[in-house]
Amino acid sequence: MIVLKSARELAHMRAGGQILAAVRERLRVLVRPGVTTKEIDVDVEAFIVARGAKSAFKGYRGYPATVCTSINQEVVHGIPSEKRRLAEGDIIGLDLGCIVEGYYADCAVTLAVGAVPPRVQELLDVTRESLDKAIVQCRPGNRLGDISHAVQSHCESHGFGVVRAFVGHGIGRQLHEDPQVPNFGEPGRGPGLKAGMVLAIEPMVTMGSWEVRILEDRWTAVTEDGSLAAHFEDTIAITENGPEILTRVEPGA
Ligand code: MF3
Ligand code: CO
After folding, report:
1. Which residue, 201, 210, 99, 213, is CA-closest to 155?
2. Nearest to residue 220, comparing CAs of 104, 114, 64?
3. Which ligand is closest to the CA of 234, given by its number?
4. How much is the average pLDDT of 244-253?
5. Distance from Cα 200 to the centre of ligand 2, integer Å
6. 66, 75, 95: which to mutate for ligand 1, most atoms within 8 A of CB?
7. Domain of 221?
8. Which of 17, 88, 93, 194 is a Cys-bridge partner for 231, taking CB atoms 3.0 to 4.6 Å apart?
9. How far apart are the C-alpha atoms of 116 and 122, rounded to whole Å?
10. Whose CA is nearest to atom 8 of ligand 1?
11. Is residue 96 part of a domain?
């Protein structure tokens, strides 16, 4: 069942989303050669708590941290560690959520640590562009498949692989609500989009094939072929006037 959100509920999710937008800015400074993923996690948790919000992932199904830190061939759900130090040339996916007044917001970004080869930068650019193209589809009258198709067609046309095993999701009182939002699919198919729906759209894209496997820690998902992977995510409210991106700072705000 897809739960529509009222204006009051959207206000809470917007407040959480704006905290995440601020974290995302902070990550651009925090992510640098030599820092450990644990140091990033500790800093981000303190930042969220200082703003009166709660970490969404810590304790979720036993997940032990605030941020998922996924380096290079790790796709999602990497666990922060004091033993994992970033090096020049790495890419790192950072995924985090927060809770305000019982409502969730969720976002992710992939950053390059220093300089990376052009094709790696293209992976990051194309994955982010595919999210932007998906967001444009978030208006009443369109269907869920329009979102999925926007991601898939953009990424595959650039020769990248689109992960199937993980999908985006509805979000609200729970981190994961209906509907599932796949990053692959046919335009014009699936549930109709309505004002009041809130979706977390999260393309996970690789330099090689779409297949993934889970490491022994039972969390970290890596590409089966060892290729690099990128992940971007925003929480988007569908309004009568089109998409409102809750996890980005509104221009002029
Ligand atoms: N951002 C992830 C998602 O959208 C959630 C991570 S699962 C957790 O599904 F356990 F790490 F919280
Ligand atoms: Co999510």
Report:
1. 210
2. 64
3. 2
4. 83
5. 5
6. 95
7. 7-245
8. 93
9. 10
10. 57
11. yes
Tokens of 53: 């919000």
Q: Find the mean pLDDT for residues 15-26.
A: 98
pTM given for the model: 0.98
pLDDT band at 252 (very low <50, low <70, confident <90, very high): low
Residue 1 lies in a domain: no
Instruction: Tell me the two tokens of residue 61.
Output: 């199904």
Candidate from 60, 107, 110, 199 with most ligand 1 atoms within 8 A of CB, to mutate: 60
Whether 251 maps to a domain, the answer reads: no
What's the confidence (pLDDT) of residue 250?
75
Instruction: For the beta carbon of residue 10, count every other beta carbon within 10 angstroms.
Output: 19
In a domain, 209, yes or no: yes
Q: Which atom of ligand 1 is nearest to the CA of 57?
A: 12
| Ligand 1 atom at minimal distance to the Cα of residue 200 | 4
Residue type, position 163, single letter:
V
Question: CB 35: neighbour CB atoms within 10 A?
Answer: 16
Contact 38, 80 (CB under 8 A): yes
Nearest CA to 230 out of 21, 72, 24 is that of: 72
174 CB near ligand 1 (under 6 Å): no
Q: How high is the pLDDT of residue 253?
A: 56
Q: What is the CATH number of the domain that holds 141?
A: 3.90.230.10
Is the pLDDT assigned to residue 119 strictly greater than 70? yes
